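Q: Sequence in, structure out?
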Amino acid sequence: MTTDSSASSESTAPKEPSLEARSPEEQTPDPPEVKTLDRHLQVRFKSDGERLLLLLPPETAKQDSAGGLTWTELSQQLQHRLNGGDRFWQPNTTVHLMAVDRLLDQRQLQEIAEILNREQLQLDRVTTCRRQTAVAAVTAGYSVEQQSRQETLQQAVQNQAQALTEPLYLQTTVRSGVEIRHPGTIAIVGDVNPGGSVIADGDILVWGRLRGLAHAGAAGNSGCMIMALQMEPTQLRIAQAVARAPANPPSQYYPEVAYETPQGIRITRASDFSKTQMLLGSKRAGHNL
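A: Exactly. Output:
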């Protein structure tokens, strides 16, 4: 007669006591819960044509026990992202920093640039909805695009006659290759050098020499104006109208204002400028560009 060894083994093996029957010191604690980081709290890279987007988690993301990332955590996470995983970018790729509503100062922007430089990446532009971050980026020499938190293109067109985002005030020189964008008025105490660009949905005021490109009313508001103490632009734009500086510069410069008329962009001395007359289409001293 044969014996079923498996049945015999099963019948003679001691039974494992149930969890409820074990003493507290015998019980094995449950493994700790593995917490996954919300992707909205992560530093991320995204390919965008020939450039690389660096997306930072919002300052106010996830207002719960996890909270947002501190600056130390953010910089460490950025380094980990660059050091690990598959790299889908080429050396010397330019980086567009999408800072969202995260507040960054010059020191932090410089640290981000240094981390990127170590991996042969070049920080070129900063997009933010925080005015302090925009000012810090411009001061550090980066192109800037400031956005409104709730802005949409449709709202911008519909609300042309209404108040725009608060003005962006900068005390700096806009160097060649630097571009500044803002969904309101831009006021610059300093020069705009050739190769520099200033693009605003509102007016543009340059307390200095305007020698680069200026585009006021970029969302379509033809009632905006461009003013400079010394008007020497490579190109002026107001809404859809485009004009270049005259071939023969004036012998003497005065503070001047550029504005749009049915005949195109005109320029006149600031002392002669009257927005009321402009809206009514009245004739006055000035010349077409």
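The chain has two domains: 36-147, 151-289.
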